[in-house]
Amino acid sequence: MIVAGLREGGDGETASPPADAAEVLRRAQALAPVLRDRAEDIERNRRLPADVVAALKATGVFRMGFPRELGGLELSSIEQTEVIEALAYGDASAGWCSMIGSDSGLYAAFLESDVVERMFPSLDMVVAGMLFPGGRADRVPGGFRLTGRWQFGSGITHADWVISGAFRYSDGIAEPGPGGIGPGSVLLMVPRAQVEVIDTWHTTGLSGSGSCDYTITDVFVPDEHTLYFSDVRSRPGLLAQPEVHMRNMPGVPLGVARAALDHAREVVVATGRSDDYRSQIVLADCEADFAATRHAVYGALRRQHEVLTAGGTLDDLTALERAALPLSRRHAFRTARSILTRLYDLAQTSAIYRPSPLDRWLRDTTTMCQHVVAQDRILQTAGAHLLGGRPTFPLALGITGPQR
């Protein structure tokens, strides 16, 4: 079995692929306590060990976004978020890398179907990389020559493909973006073997995610391995949307916060402090924040799902409904960090020692809150959308066209 294989040092891939969303979630939940047992090892390793990657593959998490027509599971964004939440409950870095790696199938909508079949002979293959432009793509016959250096290649140490954003150049001249606004960029997929990983990942938290810098030097990328989130090349659908890769991100902070709350409650009960007023107040207050935040995330995702399932588009969401997606996502990250800070204080000196999971979870949530989806740029983007202004990060709203 998946869990037994990991505990015994096996490859974790003896199980057949899961049949549906419920089975992926069951496998993720079963793996979570094993990931918890391996958390210190994962952190010390500064990347996911090979057997942990194999066990994650066996849950089906990396194949859950692929379309059914290609043999994938095509889980909804709601179902994907639940799976990521379950894995992050075991370990934050494993949850983070699962979230990143599960985007492999989501990119399929923006590539030709026959290209996806050639690129992914196994649906458990992993894509890592940085989407923000950090390189230069010079047009040449049949594609681009790509060169650059990128940060935050989460999961790149176990990836099969690397996706990178780059500014487009033609005959040495920068190409314009949509509507002639800003520089034009493109996303390019390169085999991991053509990428040099630079070991820069010595961080506060999420240490086991292996989110190293990497460089690509003068690599030819054929046009068929490039993509734009504004261009759906295969079958349209619920997951063929420009911001689809951001939707399941809240699963990581929600899973970590839930783990910390359960741990803190167990410690309070075990140490005979169930009638302690401060413990009661802190735990209840944190539970209230967690419940409200989680409901906001899944409520926004459900409303989006309803509109898209009915044949609508993101433009059919009201301004408030569309803004709720990035806002609830940001709030999940910030609330998780707030919860960990309060629980850390509640535990007092026992929390400061590295064996304490609260110490690790506090550092993990602090680090993940530095991601752009948890920053004030999201507030500006949502606020501008609500007020009819110009968002600075329109992709967070699923907007790819020119802005006024």
TrEMBL record:
InterPro entries: Acyl-CoA_DH_C, Acyl-CoA_Oxase/DH_mid-dom_sf, AcylCo_DH-like_C, AcylCoA_DH/ox_N, AcylCoA_DH/ox_N_sf, AcylCoA_DH/oxidase_NM_dom_sf
Keywords, alphabetical: Oxidoreductase
Record-annotated membrane-spanning stretches: none
Protein name in the entry: Hydroxylase
Oxidoreductase listed as a keyword: yes
GO MF term set: acyl-CoA dehydrogenase activity; flavin adenine dinucleotide binding
Classification of source organism: Bacteria, Bacillati, Actinomycetota, Actinomycetes, Micromonosporales
Key word Oxidoreductase present: yes
PANTHER family hit by this protein: ACYL-COA DEHYDROGENASE (PTHR43884), ISOVALERYL-COA DEHYDROGENASE, MITOCHONDRIAL-RELATED (PTHR43884:SF12)
Domain Acyl-CoA dehydrogenase/oxidase N-terminal: 34-102
Domain of life per record: Bacteria
All copies of domain Acyl-CoA dehydrogenase C-terminal, residue ranges: 253-375
